[in-house]
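Changelog note: in this version the structure field was regenerated for every chain. One regenerated record is shown below for reference.
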Amino acid sequence: MTGLARKALAEAIGTFVFAFAAIGAVNSGSELTPLAIGFVLTVLVYATGHISGAHLNPAVSVGVWLRGAIDLQGMLAYIGAQLVGAALAGALSFAVWPLGQPTPVQAGPAFLVEALWTFVLAFVVLNVATSKDHPNNSFYGLAIGSTVFVGAVAVGGISGGGFNPAIALGLAITGQFAWGLYWLYLIAPIVGGAVAALAFRLLNPDDTIEAAK
């Protein structure tokens, strides 16, 4: 298996588990749902970070590409793997849970918070997981998972707390997100991830690395 294929497979497996857990947490109706989603991302970042960098999110992959830490081929392979993993999780979930009801959202506020908090998430990822000032650190998984937890609590009631086009795809397949609003959960996070990459480059002008192959 080539290096890129191995990394893409790790992204697919990680995003599959992330999406399936998120779908289950949402279906549980528990007040601990945001915490469960943050924790599962934390453990998956630690589990797959040494293989692929544990993006598990197309918006993060776009940000990492614009930051210069992955090449275009790698970004496209990652995004494809993430979407496939989330779609498979959504399909498998029907063996356990019935079709859900879409979260009612207003497009304008939802777009704003999805873009804003994905910016925060991608900015955290770039600074704790790709910065040359944090080589081989041990806190990046907790920082990333905690960011998703805080976002889900802070603005999840406005948008449903996607912050990830792949997870949003899984939730759309299961009926938790309306298909007519999927464009919002696709475009807003990509915008947030791209702005995060620009902010990283502005604040870290000397932090340049060769794109991963």
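Spot check on this record: The chain has a mean pLDDT of 95. The chain has one domain: 3-203.
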